[in-house]
Amino acid sequence: MKCPYCGFEETRVLDSRVDSSGFTVRRRRECLKCKGRFTTYERYEFGPIFVIKKDGRREKFDREKILKGIMKACEKTPVSLEDMEKAVDTIVNILQKSGNLEVSSTEIGKLVMEQLKGLNEVAYVRFASVYKDFREIDQFLEVVKELKNEK
C-alpha cells in the first residue's frame, strides 16, 4: 500500500476493524518512512453494475457518487461519516444481492431516501427536494407531513 503523503510503498497496519455489516474492513495504517497515518477500506468487489439514467444513458455504478450525495444532504447535521459510509454500504449490498447488472437511477434514489430517513430527517428532506425535483413549497410540506405521520 503506497503512502498517500510521500508515496513510499511500505506501511504497517495499526488497527483493523470489521464494520457492523460485516462487508467492510477499516484499517488504520502508518507509513514506515514519513510516519504519516491514513485509513483504508477493504470491500467485496462484485461484477459491474450499470445505472440507467432518466434520459436512457448508461453509466458504470459509482459508489462515491452516492456517498457524495449523502454527504451533501447531511451537511451541518450530526450524522457521522461512519454512519454515512454504512448507509452507502447497505445500498451497495442491496444492489449486489439483487443480482441485476442494470439498475435505474430512480431505484438508487429510493434506496438513498430509505437510508436517509433512518439517519436524519433534515437530510431526508434535503435529498427529497433534489430527488423529487420540488418546484413548490407545498411539496416540502407534503414530505414533512409524511415524516410527522410516521412518528
UniProtKB/TrEMBL annotation:
Ribosomal protein among keywords: no
Gene Ontology biological-process entries: negative regulation of DNA-templated transcription
InterPro entries: ATP-cone_dom (IPR005144), NrdR-like_N (IPR055173), RNR_NrdR-like (IPR003796)
Cofactor, how bound (note): Binds 1 zinc ion.
Zn finger limits (unnamed): 3-34
Cofactor(s) recorded in Swiss-Prot or TrEMBL: Zn(2+)
Molecular functions (GO terms): ATP binding; DNA binding; zinc ion binding
Keyword annotations: ATP-binding, DNA-binding, Metal-binding, Nucleotide-binding, Repressor, Transcription, Transcription regulation, Zinc, Zinc-finger
ATP-cone domain sequence ranges: 49-139
Highest taxon, organism lineage: Bacteria
NCBIfam families named in the record: transcriptional regulator NrdR
Entry function: Negatively regulates transcription of bacterial ribonucleotide reductase nrd genes and operons by binding to NrdR-boxes.
Family: Belongs to the NrdR family.
Protein name from the UniProt record: Transcriptional repressor NrdR
Organism listed in the record: Thermosipho atlanticus DSM 15807
